[in-house]
Amino acid sequence: MTRKLALALLLIAGSLPVQADYVIGTCTIRVPTPPATNCYYADLTSANLSSTSLTNADLRYTKLAGANLAGTNLTGAKLSGVTSGGIVGAPAALPAGWQLVNG
């Protein structure tokens, strides 16, 4: 009985999605958040950040020109000093007081 249970648990665990940190440009995206992603002064020019959770991320002074933010969650992110232009798509959420205007 114990072997069957262990095998069943192993099979279930093997079918679960694996979540791990990953790097885009000069930024390590933390999965899951928290801990919050720290991409202070990162160069994410033309990066594909679509559907990424950047909740509470520190993105101060990050270069986001041409980045794909379609569906990206930026709730609580620190965005002061960010440079952008030509942003692709609309984020799913932005920090309070922020809006995307002409990319």
Write a compact overview of the structure shown:
This protein has about 100 residues and is largely without helices or strands. It has one helix spanning about 1-15; strands at about 20-25, 25-30. It is built from 1 helix and 2 strands.
Main traits of this protein?
103 residues, little secondary structure, two-stranded antiparallel ribbon, globular
Q: How can the largest sheet be summarized?
A: 2 strands, antiparallel
As a percent range, the share of helical residues equals 10-25%
Mean pLDDT: 80
Helix and strand run: HEE
Strand content range: 5-15%
Strands side by side in the biggest sheet: 1-2
Q: What are the segments in which pLDDT stays under 50 over at least 5 consecutive residues?
A: 1-18
Describe the protein:
With 103 residues, the chain is low in regular secondary structure. The chain has a domain at 51-97. It is built from 1 helix and 2 strands, in the order αββ. The protein has one helix at residues 2-15, and strands at residues 22-24, 27-29. It has a two-stranded antiparallel ribbon.
Secondary-structure map:
Elements: H1 2-15, E1 22-24, E2 27-29
Antiparallel strand pairs: 1-2
